[in-house]
Amino acid sequence: MKTLKVGVVGAGFVSNIHLDAYRRVSGDVKMEVVGITAKDNAEEYAKKFGIGRVYRDFEEMIADPEIDVVDICVPNVLHADFCVQAANAGKHIICEKPLTGGFGVDSPDRPAGKTPKKELYFEAMKNADRIVEAARKNNVKICYAEDFVYAPVVEKAKRILKKSGGAILEIRTEESHSGSHADYSRHWRLAGGGSLLRMGSHPIGLALHLKRYEGLLKYGKPIEVKSVVADVATLTHTEAFQKHHQEWIVDKWQDVEDWSTVVITFEDDTKALISANDTTLGGIVNTLDIFTTNTVLHCNMASNDSVKAYTPSASTYGDEYISEKIETTAGWTFPSPDEDYMRGYPQEMQDFAEAIAGDRDPISDGELGRQVVKVIYAAYISAETGTRVELADL
After folding, report:
1. What is the pLDDT of residues 264-316, one digit of tens each?
2. Does any domain span residue 71?
3. CATH code for position 123
C-alpha cells in the first residue's frame, strides 16, 4: 500500500471537511495528514485530528521532504502564489475552489471590486495559467477540489446519460444559501468576487464537467463554452432589504455581489443556467437538473428526506449537527446522515489519491479549474457591460 503524506494549509471550515475526508481514503493507497499550518487554529486542528506537526509557516511546510501533497484551504487571494510555490517545491497540489481569481487594486479612492472587469479577467487568467504552467514544468498534479463532480447523484446521472445515449440540451444547476460568515468573503481584494465566484464555481464547474464528459463520450473531445450572458447584484444593499432586514441573511458584503445568474452557451449551442446567491433562507441549495433528448434528471446534492425530525424548540438537539445553513432547528428538519458523502468529498479525495499514486490526471483537474475561472470572469464582464461575451473574443 502506498501512503501519501499530506500537509494542510489553513484551519477553517473547508479544512475540517478535507481532514475528515482523508480518513475515508481506502484501497491500495492511503493519505496521511502529517502536518498543518494556518494563521489561526492550527494547534486546535492538530489536536482534534491527531496531526503530528504544526509548521510555523507555508515555507517551512513545503521545505519538508516528507510532504508529498499540499492541500491549500486558504482565502482565494493566496491560491495562485501558494500553488506555484508548492509546485516549484515538487509537491502535488490539492486546491480548494475556485482555483484562483482577479483581485484588483484596493485604494481609498476605489475599492477593488470597482476595477474594470476585463482587467480582472486578464489578471485571473494570468494567475490560472501560472498555476497550470508551474505544475506542468515540475511534473506535479493539480487536484482541483470541485466536490460536486464526485457527488453520488452526479455519478449516477452520468451513468444514466451514458446508457441513454441522448444529447444534453440544457443544464440547470445552483448553489445558494443565506450567506458566508467568513470575513474574507466580503472583500473583492481577498475573495476575487462574490457569490458568482465563491459559490457559482460549484455549479459552473459541474456544468462544464458534464459537457466535457458528454463530448468525450460522443466525439472524443470536450464540448467547450462559446459565450456567456450574466447579471449580478447585491440585494442586501437594496432599499427593500434595508427596510425589512432580519437577522438571518448575511448583509456584510463590502464590494462584492450576493446574487448572480449566468446563461452559458456551449459550442454545440446547448445551454446551462447557473444560479448562485447568498440571499436564500431554508438551508443550502445544491441542485442539478439535466434535460436531454430522451430523459430528464433531477439531482439534489444537499437535502434529503431519509431522516425527518420535529421539535418545537431550537435548543432540543444541543450541538448535534442537522444540516448546513439552516437558520433554526425548530420545527421540521431533515438531518443529514452524511452530508459530506452526498456532496462527494470522500470520493474526491479517493480520486486524488489514486491519481497521484497512479500518475494520471484526476477527474477534477487543473484545466477544469482554469476553465471555471475563465467562464466566471467572462460572466463578470457580461454583467458589467450588459452584453453577451464571446469567449473567443477575449
Report:
1. 999 999 999 999 999 999 999 999 999 999 999 999 998 778 899 999 999 99
2. yes
3. 3.40.50.720
C-alpha gyration radius of the chain:
21
pLDDT at residue 84 above 90? yes
In a domain, 373, yes or no: no
For residues 75 and 154, what is the distance between their CA atoms, to the nearest angstrom?
27
Flag whether 104 is in a domain: yes
Torsion from C-alpha of 343, 349, 352, 354, nearest 10 degrees: -120
Average pLDDT over every residue of 33-52: 94
Q: 334: buried, middle or exposed (CB in 10 Å: 19+, 13-18, 0-12)? A: middle
Q: Which residues contact 278 (CB under 8 A, 6 or more apart)?
A: 176, 177, 178, 179, 180, 194, 195, 199, 236, 249, 250, 253, 258, 259
pLDDT digits (tens, 9 = 90+) for 5-22: 999 999 999 999 999 999
User: What pLDDT does 246 receive?
Assistant: 82
Q: Quick check: bond before 98 cis, omega within 30? A: yes
Domain around 21: 2-146
Q: What angle do CA 20, 23, 26 make, to 5 degrees?
A: 140
Q: How many domains does the chain have?
A: 1
Assigned domain for 185 exists: no
